[in-house]
Amino acid sequence: MSRHHIVHACGHEREHHLFGNRSHRTSKEKWLAEQDCWDCDRAEQNTASAARAVEADLPAFTSGSDKQIAWAVTIRDQILTDVDHRFSDTGPLRERVRAILLRETRAKRWIDLRNDGATGVLVSLCAPGEYRDLYASEDCS
Length: 141
Ligand SMILES: [Zn+2]
Description:
Elements: E1 2-7, E2 13-18, H1 22-34, H2 38-55, H3 66-86, H4 92-103, H5 107-112, H6 117-125, H7 130-140
Antiparallel strand pairs: 1-2
Helix pairs in contact: 2-3, 3-4
């Protein structure tokens, strides 16, 4: 491992710990220099997610710092996108799932759940028994 100070495409310099042989590190260094830094990348994602949230008229977050809310909007956007891909149609189950997810408007909660995936987040945000009922009602229809 070696430390490299890399000036990214956005102009910010960041320290990276690179692994592997010299050839691998050199190509990784070159690739990193062509990318925006992580902060700029995150800011761009947050801006895009916020625009989609406004366009879709999603509920605003009710708690959290500006930074937490910006991040939570992106996390929620990614989970909702995943849900939309899992349900091929726009049927009632998908709408019920989206409604459950959109009830949660605390930024910290979304940040805490960021690594759980769509199903994990859904299970966490369901009221007791709600997740079971969600799929039980689907089986009966
Ligand atoms: Zn940057």
